[in-house]
Amino acid sequence: MPPQTRKQFGQHWLKSEAALEAIVAAAGVGKGDRILEIGPGTGILTRRLLPLAQAVLAVEIDRDLCKLLVEQLGKRDNFLLLQGDFLTMDLGDTLESFPNFQRPNKVVANIPYNITGPILEKLLGAIATPNPSPFDSIVLLVQKEVAERLSARPSSRAFGGLSVRVQYLANCEWICEVPARAFQPPPKVDSAVVRLTPRPTEPPATDPKRLDALVKMGFATKRKMLRNNLTSVVERDRLAQLLEELGLNSQVRAEDLSVANWVALSNRLNQTEFN
Ligand code: SAH
């Protein structure tokens, strides 16, 4: 029997073979890979990763689960378990005495959904502060609605501020849906696997803080025309002119701008025009 779950840690044990296979396949785990797994839980995914990867570094907050994991997997020399909160842990410092587990190149995890946003930010960084040594790829099982937003294309229902922020830093792919019944206990929502592949932004924002602020303002009121959402930061006529230069209709909404459009808009504004 799997151990009792703790709600505060967002624990739902994955039990679907198909979902586990899809996650491992999406990550393309091979002998040269050093994997970081956040929230190994009972180790169901960890057990699949260990024989394939060079090393698996897992971070688990729940002490009781850590005891079980050490009993069951502790003898593997390519496994390192760190007990603690992934969000506050300084991996660089902690790994100084474990050279084989330093600089993991891929993340593979079924994460606790209640801290998805902060986990994404810790892995990718943010528009103004991108992670300086990004991962080759990040494969995550997340809430379906979040997966839709991460992989959404412009002008679709799910395309929002989160889509722009994350797609600015990484290619985002929808891999597959995972129904609630694939977990024990089943969560209230369906899930999906996504793959994020960090890459340099082309072209980059010349002033990432401005881009960040612009996106925030642009999406502040859903479904409003962009020119109405940005009135407090950009002169109306200037915005109309910029939209025209970008080949966009003056009545566009925030969700109609591609990531490249957002970057172009931000880059064309100069400091004095943006307040
Ligand atoms: N990967 C397992 C468990 C998923 S549930 C499976 O697929 O079955 C999420 C896991 O994340 C739980 O084990 C939970 O204890 C752990 N967790 C929750 N918050 C965490 C945090 N801040 N840092 C590290 N692990 C965390």
State the CATH architecture of the largest domain.
3-Layer(aba) Sandwich
Task: Determine the structural class based on helices, strands and strand pairing.
Answer: alpha/beta
CATH class of the largest domain: Alpha Beta
Any ligands, ions or cofactors bound here, and which? Answer: S-adenosyl-L-homocysteine
Strand residue content: 15-25%
Rg from alpha-carbon coordinates: 21 Å
Low-pLDDT residue spans: none
Look at the structure and give the mean pLDDT.
95
Summary of the model, kept short:
The protein folds into two domains: 7-198, Vaccinia Virus protein VP39 (Rossmann fold, 3-Layer(aba) Sandwich), CATH 3.40.50.150; 208-268, Orthogonal Bundle (Helicase, Ruva Protein, domain 3). It has eleven helices and eleven strands. Helix content is 34%, strand content 19%.
Features:
2 domains; two-stranded antiparallel ribbon; 7-stranded mixed beta sheet; 275 residues; Rossmann fold; binds S-adenosyl-L-homocysteine; Helicase, Ruva Protein, domain 3
Overall description:
With 275 residues, this protein is an alpha/beta fold. The chain folds into two domains: 7-198, 3-Layer(aba) Sandwich (Rossmann fold); 208-268, Orthogonal Bundle (Helicase, Ruva Protein, domain 3). Helix content is 34%, strand content 19%. It contains eleven helices and eleven strands. The protein has helices at 17-27, 44-49, 63-73, 91-94, 116-124, 144-151, 161-169, 208-218, 226-229, 236-245, 259-268, and strands at 13-14, 34-38, 55-60, 79-83, 106-110, 125-126, 129-130, 137-143, 170-178, 183-184, 191-198. The strands form three sheets. Strands 4-3-2-5-8-11-9 form a seven-stranded mixed β-sheet, with helices on both faces. Strand 2 (34-38), helix 2 and strand 3 form a beta-alpha-beta unit. The radius of gyration is 21 Å and the shape is elongated. The structure holds S-adenosyl-L-homocysteine.
